[in-house]
Amino acid sequence: MIRTSHYRNKLCVTETQLLKTGKTSADLIRATGHTPANISKLRNGKIKAIRLKTLLDICDELDCQPGDIIQRVSEKELEELIVERAKNVVRQMRDGGGNEASLPTSVFAVDFSDE
Fold this sequence. Notes:
The protein has helices at 14-21, 25-32, 36-43, 52-62, 66-69, 75-95; strands at 9-12, 70-73, 108-111. By secondary structure, it is mainly alpha-helical. Helix 2 packs across helix 3 (36-43) and helix 2 (25-32) crosses helix 4 (52-62). The chain is globular. 12% of the residues are buried.
């Protein structure tokens, strides 16, 4: 397997899909049968592996593809996303929630460079 440092992060974008669909952690818990603690770890990027069945169950619940939930990003792309999400936080604070409330504000990345 060829590994490059250019793409060493995997980005967990479950939050974006949850916001797009209006789903909650409870919906993911029901769909996958996992515990609240495991879903929290998934949502916060604290996992390094996921069973294919779990991934597909989440995709069924969120009506999306696996690539909508987990993306491979470069360091530069990750930095750009962090800036974008920070701007979303500022917009929400400035506008008091308003229409911007459905924009994602967090970035959770899993770094596989140690493996």
